[in-house]
Amino acid sequence: MKTLLSRQHAFADDALLRRALCDHGLVSRTADGRAYRRIERRPPTEAAALLRHLKASASGRPEAAT
User: Fold this and answer.
1) Cβ contact 29:38 at 8 Å
2) Which DSSP string corresponds to the chain?
3) Rounded to 5 degrees, what angle do the CA atoms 47, 53, 54 make?
4) Using one digit for the tens of pLDDT, what is the confidence trace for 7-45?
5) Measured CA angle at 55 (ends 5, 26), to 5 deg
6) Measured on CA atoms in the order 47, 55, 2, 14, is the torsion positive or negative?
């Protein structure tokens, strides 16, 4: 997980990101902190809208009105 997070953010504190992911219920970890597992669930409405916007921006297409 450290390598993945290090490639996806600009600040050098992957431990903070791992803790935040756990605190927000997005991932779980083993008691010793060695293994992480993503918790599958539907994103909130606001997050879904943001994801659509980011996906449209990345593809260079204008976002469809909802």
Assistant:
1) no
2) -HHHHHHH-SSS-HHHHHHHHHHTTSEEE-TTS--EEE---PPPHHHHHHHHHHHHHHHTPPPPP-
3) 90
4) 777 777 888 888 888 998 889 999 998 899 999 988 788
5) 40
6) negative
